[in-house]
Amino acid sequence: MFMRLLAAPTPSTTTPGGATSISNGRDLFRALGCAACHTPTVGQTQASSFTASLNKAPVNAFSDLEIHHMGTGLADNVSQGGAGGDQFRTAPLWGLSQRIFLLHDGRTANLLKAIEAHGSNGSEATQVESNFDSLSPAQKQEILNFLRSL
Prior knowledge:
Shape: globular
CATH topology: Cytochrome Bc1 Complex, Chain D, domain 2
Number of strands: 4
Largest sheet: 2 strands, antiparallel
Helix content: 25-40%
CATH class: Mainly Alpha
Radius of gyration: 16 Å
CATH superfamily: Cytochrome c-like domain
Order of helices and strands: HEEEHEHHH
Number of helices: 5
Number of domains: 1
Strand content: 5-15%
CATH architecture: Orthogonal Bundle
Oligomer: single chain
């Protein structure tokens, strides 16, 4: 019963950096291509008569829940099911502000390093990470503020 009534993480609209910075970061997140895999709303819950709040509620997981090649930089060479050692399901970003360790194996606590790790030989996200690298320091900070608001 406890698990059935847990709410999804609620993103902040003001912290860190303020509402304008978070909004700008959200826009940049989409413009760079991050949202192609870290899809803001993946769908909705099934119909529920248990509680109205769970009835066809949006699932704002920031994931497409698909498996992608992430290249040699993130590869752990562990095969699971049909996924090879460089393939991972897109990690949901909801609740990111509450996490200490990042990436599929918790290898970093640094959000910039987690973003940079997306760009490596064979990664489907290399171009997106390259787009991030081309941003100004202020724009990068806005994306970090957006991500830390989740």
